[in-house]
Backbone:
């Protein structure tokens, strides 16, 4: 499929049927409210409490910033879904620009969020693997610098590289094939252009496959370590329980011996007293 076939819908052309359902708009509105409320609470807590301004939380704030920007993308999608172009709409160029911006922002934010999640998993791995050196390895300066590198890398992968490669041909073919305003979504039997397909493979491997593998390895190691520690604690508790039971049995045996000896002494004393009383009674007679 040539790049000329992938272009925004002509004026008066109906958008694809796959983006029509109104329930999709309702879901986006709910997500916008939830994301705005949740991230606002996190930003307020980070700003108000100085104790929360740690290195690990600075990574979380960068992730919250990327998550907050998804509200803009959702708002654009709602606008594109709710307003259909009619007749010779003079805003068709603006609509095409909105569609392209939505596609670029979506891929950009997906890149930033997934890499940040991998970054957080590595930070947790360091906290478990190098607990004594954690404070010296993970510093606020390093985490902020790494977050900046993640943002710049995502911009390069999602925006700069598609624009610069093949004179922007990859960008046009990719986003015209992916964003919902494209007429290419109707051409279900046609495959994605080779240039755009190659970029999508590169993007999926670098942004999805590698970060997901890092996340699985990091949290898998943490799970194994926590499981090992739990077993050690359970074994220690069992040993302590057995020792405690033995001490209790030993104490009970000591108490029993003392009680038996005391009872024997009391019986002997009573016997002697009875014998003495009998002798006294006999002599009195």
Residues:
């Amino acid at each position: 499929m040539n790049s000329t076939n992938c272009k925004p819908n002509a004026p008066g052309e109906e958008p694809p049927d796959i983006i029509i359902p109104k329930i999709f708009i309702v879901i986006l509105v709910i997500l916008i409210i939830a994301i705005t409320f949740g991230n606002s609470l996190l930003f307020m807590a980070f700003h108000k409490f100085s104790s929360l301004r740690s290195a690990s939380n600075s990574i979380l704030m960068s992730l919250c910033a990327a998550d907050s920007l998804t509200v803009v993308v959702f708002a654009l999608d709602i606008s594109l879904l709710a307003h259909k172009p009619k007749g010779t709409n003079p805003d068709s160029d603006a609509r095409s620009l909105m569609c392209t911006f939505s596609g670029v922002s979506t891929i950009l934010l997906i890149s930033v969020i997934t890499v940040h999640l991998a970054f957080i998993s590595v930070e947790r791995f360091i906290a478990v693997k190098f607990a004594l050196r954690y404070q010296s390895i993970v510093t606020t300066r390093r985490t902020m610098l790494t977050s900046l590198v993640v943002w710049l890398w995502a911009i390069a992968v999602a925006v700069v590289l598609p624009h610069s490669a093949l004179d922007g041909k990859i960008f046009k073919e990719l986003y015209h094939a992916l964003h919902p305003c494209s007429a290419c979504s109707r051409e279900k039997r046609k495959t994605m252009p080779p240039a755009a397909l190659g970029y999508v493979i590169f993007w999926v491997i670098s942004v999805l496959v590698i970060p997901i593998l890092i996340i699985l390895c990091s949290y898998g190691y943490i799970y194994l370590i926590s499981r090992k520690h739990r077993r050690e604690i359970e074994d220690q508790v069992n040993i302590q329980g057995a020792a405690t039971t033995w001490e209790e049995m030993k104490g009970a045996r000591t108490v029993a011996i003392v009680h038996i000896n005391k009872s024997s002494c009391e019986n002997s004393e009573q016997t002697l007293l009875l014998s003495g009383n009998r002798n006294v009674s006999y002599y009195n007679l």
